Amino acid sequence: MNRRGFIAASIGIGIGIGTAALTTTPAQAKDTGKPFGPYGSPAHRRDADTVYVDPHGRGDFTTVQAAATTARTLVIAPGIYRETVTATVAGATWIGASGNPRDTVVVYDNAAGTQKPDGSGTYGTTGSATVTLRGEDFTAQNITFANDWLRADHPDITGTQAVALKVTGDRSAFFGCRFLGHQDTLYADSPAVTAIARQYFRDCYAEGDVDFVFGRGTAVYEHCHFRTLDRTDLGGAPYGFVFAPSTAGAAPRGFLVTRSRITSTAPDAYYKLARPWVPSSDTTAVPSLVVRDTRLGAGIDAAAPYANMSDSYPWQRQRFAEYRNTGPGAAVTVPENRPQLTHEQAESATPATYLADWTPRRARP
Hints:
- This protein is mainly beta.
- It has helices spanning 3-12, 64-68, 124-127, 343-346, 351-355; strands spanning 50-53, 73-76, 79-82, 85-87, 93-96, 104-108, 131-133, 139-141, 144-147, 165-167, 172-175, 178-180, 186-188, 198-202, 205-208, 210-215, 218-222, 225-228, 240-245, 255-258, 261-264, 271-274, 288-292, 295-296, 319-323.
- It has a ten-stranded parallel beta sheet with strand order 1-2-5-8-11-14-17-20-23-25. It has an eight-stranded parallel beta sheet with strand order 3-6-9-12-15-18-21-24, covered by helices on one side. A seven-stranded parallel beta sheet has the order 4-7-10-13-16-19-22.
- Mean pLDDT is 91; it is low at 1-8 and 10-30.
């Protein structure tokens, strides 16, 4: 699928990269004449620190990046924002104006192996991100973050990581957002090995194929939908891995997935649930993942749901566990391959425990 096909599919149907192309172009996208929906308009501000972003020029800014450097609250009109964005403002809130994340899409197509325009080298995984968020106390609501870089279009590039969103700030929350990509879609990280960054994802959707939810953050995914994509560039399983936490050894908790579901467009059992990432920058990492009360579809290999990224750091030595999962991908056929929490352990594997004294809240119209 070409770049325009990806964007059209993500807006019109909501599945993202793996969907047949439509014909929408950026100039045509959702130009309804009423770009701000329930969140008002530039003529009816709620406060002086709110700015309105609209690609057709009916707001204060036409790009998210320009708005993100000047204000804490962004109301973003429907449309496609083809740009990279880096935001550092603390306490920022971004709101998709229509209330539907398919309508407001921030997308770009850098990969780790993409050459920088100034000739200084390649972007690397972090540099490939369409959106990078560094400020604490960030909230996003009803927005799609996407990276539409495709392997098939760039057979000469071996660095195929292509991040849609990288977030490092503590107390970062995402409600009703979508994260679209292939490899390394959603990078939930912290600013340093010694820093704890709590992140909360509620009613969100993420899709990809390799390690597409990964990082060092203390991240809770509640009522989320993860979708593994089919691939044509591989001859057999595994196609990839849903989670790849890289939790610092001193951090008490990593990823918690609760009351969610995992589906797939790939053949049955062609995906692993997770593998641990111990990066060269932190060889003392002890990745942590708990998946509980979640439906695992047939796309997950029930017999062997975990694998190693490196034989030096086998998954069995990491902090991986499950609890009361359901679905064909959750069947415990080989008990030693599926560590389970006890009831007592599960009592502390909750969003409240992971988030401690922080209670994430949605933005209000």
